[in-house]
Design brief:
Bound molecules: zinc ion
Distance between the termini: 38 Å
Strand content: 5-15%
Helix content: 25-40%
């Protein structure tokens, strides 16, 4: 691509950029964490300010109790590990990047696990550090 087209493209992107978030949001494309409302396994409510929410990279969401008691740091849906879900600020510290502009999801994901089945699935995977899976 020559310099001329690069300049046009970059100026277009600068114009488009402020509108992108809204367009993506309207199209319901995920460009940020959904902040799911509950533990997928036990249904425990996990509001956006909860420090008990554990998520995998696909944002499969579990409460700390389920994570600690039998998930073995293996997501039952993807086999990846978990991290604590970050808390989206409720205050407008900058550019409306906050909870009221980007509210938490209200869509419940609830698919309780069969502990025996998960234990079988996690058996080999849990021995591998998450960053090597
Ligand atoms: Zn749970
Ligand atoms: Zn997962």
């Amino acid at each position: 691509m020559n310099i001329f087209y690069t300049a046009i493209l970059s100026s277009f992107l600068k114009i488009a950029n402020p509108h992108c978030k809204k367009i993506f949001r309207n199209l319901n494309l995920t460009i940020m964490l959904e902040l799911r409302p509950n533990c997928e396994n036990c249904g425990k409510l996990l509001p956006p300010e909860s420090s008990e929410a554990m998520i995998c990279s696909f944002e499969c969401t579990f409460c700390f109790h389920c994570y600690e008691s039998f998930l073995e740091n293996v997501c039952p849906n993807c086999g990846g590990g978990f991290s604590q879900r970050p808390i989206r600020p409720k205050n407008n510290w900058k550019n409306n990047n906050n909870l009221s502009e980007y509210p938490a999801s209200t869509k419940t994901v609830y698919r309780p696990l069969d502990p025996a089945e998960h234990s079988l699935f996690a058996k080999g995977i849990s021995k591998i550090p998450a960053k090597q899976r």
